[in-house]
TrEMBL record:
Organism: Alosa alosa (allis shad)
Membrane-related topology note: Single-pass membrane protein
Main location: membrane
Protein name: Ig-like domain-containing protein
Keyword Disulfide bond in annotation: yes
InterPro entries (alphabetical): CD80_C2-set, Ig-like_dom, Ig-like_dom_sf, Ig-like_fold, Ig_CD22, Ig_sub
Keywords: Disulfide bond, Membrane, Signal, Transmembrane, Transmembrane helix
Pfam families reported in the protein's UniProt record: C2-set_2, Ig_2, Ig_CD22
Length: 507
């Protein structure tokens, strides 16, 4: 029932307004413009309808109190201060009398009013309702909203920045100090003001922590305003590194490492690992003692309540003086003595070869901490020395020169075949020796054996029975002498069935 009464009253009131339609203007009481930007004064006028046809519309704006023209269709009548700066942006036919003033100046401040001139009907000055334009020198600070006190790394953050302005044809531009997805929205406010809002969305990360997010508003005409907020982000440790970055230690020595990490909240526990698993030490630093060259790379793991992060494994550079490997050797070759020296050291060593009458530095082929130095030394050497040195010490090895393998086999083969041949001959002759006249036989044998003396000698040394022993004393002594002469030099090698060095060396 009450509703119905209200409805009836409302309808009557509405009809009453329509009937009393008269000269009215709707403008805000005041509009604030920014110096050197523009102002659009929203304006709507109305007039009593009397069914007359209007052939054209003209509008004019005045500045009180002297009522100079601020805008007129005939710009020559407009006050010089406004001549190029004003425009009627509203469609008069549609009762829109909005005025735009560009390049606002401080003394544009004042009270303005509107007059309509309709040809074929009437004219009217809405001077009883004036609008006050005020001008400010600097824009307001934009407002920022949407930031939560603290976000977790990875979460999406949306920050909004709003600026108000009075110049819709040239809205300000809003820029952000951080990358992200930006959306812009505009909405009108009262009093000729408009609100432009830019929203920035991004995934927060560790780098955003404590960083200001700044929005900069550039107004038409060049005035700028900024505002910013500080973002707080919680994150699992980042930048987990081991210091020193390139740890180096002398073998059997000790070294201390520390784990550097950043996190929010602060890192509250550390773990250390080597290739085979966690180490017992927990804490920011780790001391390793008696470090061997076989030590694994070390990793540090930093934790806080947001998570854990491992550093890259750090290799420890363990240094030691050179060691020369048993694989090193020298061989007698066709063009000289070929030598190869395998050296383990860290840092790499300088390798030199030293022989009877010479010395040189050797180029090396390196693979990690192993280097192979190869050299072609002069022929017919008995021994050569490989010397290696780095900043931690020296090593040397004497290499006895061996035959090249093919020569050895040929010599050994030939030598043994000869012995066998002579032995057979001797044995067969020996049978006859017994049957024939001993003196003659002894004489013959003696000549033959003297010729091949070295062969008999060898047999004797080998412990075989001398075959053609005619004069045991004589040949025995000779054999012993030979053995002694060479025995010293080749003491480490077996005695073969030939007499030359090649055979002794390899048999
Ligand atoms: C009047 O015209 C201005 C400029 O074209 C426009 O922005 C505004 O929305 C119009 N007002 C109305 C009430 O139509
Ligand atoms: C991680 O290290 C980089 C490069 O040194 C640095 O720019 C960054 O600020 C560090 N991160 C944090 C969260 O401190
Ligand atoms: C790795 O750490 C374990 C535990 O401390 C230790 O026993 C092992 O020797 C280490 N291995 C290497 C290669 O450093
Ligand atoms: C470290 O100790 C080991 C074992 O005692 C030894 O073989 C090695 O030569 C030492 N290294 C150094 C650089 O002294
Ligand atoms: C270097 O040495 C490693 C192992 O010690 C081996 O696997 C690799 O093949 C070597 N590289 C060369 C080029 O000899």
């Amino acid at each position: 029932m009450l509703n119905l009464i209200i409805l009836i009253l409302y309808l009557q009131a509405d009809r009453g307004v329509a009937a009393e339609k008269t000269w009215t203007v709707e403008i805000p009481e005041s509009v604030t413009g920014l110096k050197s930007s523009c102002v659009v004064v929203p304006c709507r006028y109305d007039y009593p309808h009397q069914g007359k046809s209007i052939s054209s519309w003209k509008g004019r704006w005045y500045l009180a109190p002297n009522d100079v023209y601020v805008y007129d269709q005939d710009s020559s009548t407009v006050d010089a201060r406004y001549q190029t700066r004003t425009a009627l942006v509203g469609e008069l036919r549609e009762k829109n009398c909005s005025l735009q003033i560009t390049d606002i100046k401080k003394n544009d401040q004042g009270q303005y009013w509107f007059r309509i001139m309709m040809e074929g009907y009437n004219s009217y000055s809405y001077s009883e309702k004036k609008i006050t334009i005020s001008v400010k020198d600097e824009p307001n600070r934009p407002s920022i909203s949407g930031v939560i006190k603290e976000v977790r790394s990875g979460e999406i953050v949306t920050v909004s920045c709003s600026a108000s302005h009075s110049c819709p044809p040239h809205p300000p531009t809003i820029t952000w100090s951080r990358d992200g997805r930006v959306t812009v929205q505009s909405e009108p406010l009262t009093g000729g003001q408009h609100k432009l809002t830019s929203s920035l969305s991004f995934n927060a990360n560790a780098l955003d922590h404590q960083q200001p997010i700044t929005c900069s508003v550039q107004h038409h005409g060049g005035k700028k305003a900024i505002n910013s907020v500080i973002l707080k982000v919680t994150y699992a440790p980042v930048n987990v590194t081991i210091s020193p970055r390139e740890p180096s230690v002398l073998e059997n020595g000790s070294i201390s490492l520390s784990c550097l990490a950043e996190g929010n909240p602060e890192v509250d526990s550390y773990q250390w690992r080597n290739g085979s698993g966690p180490l017992s030490v927990q804490g920011k630093s780790l001391t390793l003692s008696s470090v061997t060259r076989r030590i694994h790379a070390i990793t540090c793991v930093a934790r806080n309540r947001e998570g854990e992060t491992a550093s890259r494994p750090v290799r420890i550079n363990v240094e030691y003086p050179p060691e020369i490997s048993e694989q090193s050797f020298c061989t007698k070759g066709h063009s000289g003595t070929q030598c190869s020296c395998t050296v383990q050291s860290n840092p790499p060593s300088i390798v030199r070869w030293v022989w009877d009458h010479g010395e040189n530095e050797s180029p090396q082929i390196k693979n990690g901490t192993t280097a192979v130095a190869m050299a072609l030394l002069p022929p017919n050497l008995h021994q050569a020395v490989c010397m290696a040195s780095n900043k931690h010490g020296n090593a040397m090895k004497i290499l006895i020169i061996k035959n090249d393998l093919l020569n050895v086999y040929v010599s050994v083969g030939a030598g043994c075949a000869l012995i066998l041949f002579l032995t057979v001959i001797c044995l067969s002759r020996r049978k006859r020796c017994r049957q024939q006249q001993q003196n003659l036989e002894r004489e013959n044998s003696r000549k033959k054996c003297e010729k091949e003396k070295h062969v008999y000698n060898s047999q004797e040394i080998k412990g075989g029975k001398p075959c053609c022993v005619v004069d045991e004393d004589l040949y025995g002594n000779e054999a012993m002498q030979d053995a002694d002469d060479d025995g010293e030099i080749y003491a480490n090698n077996c005695h073969g069935c030939g007499e030359d060095d090649d055979i002794y060396a390899n048999c």
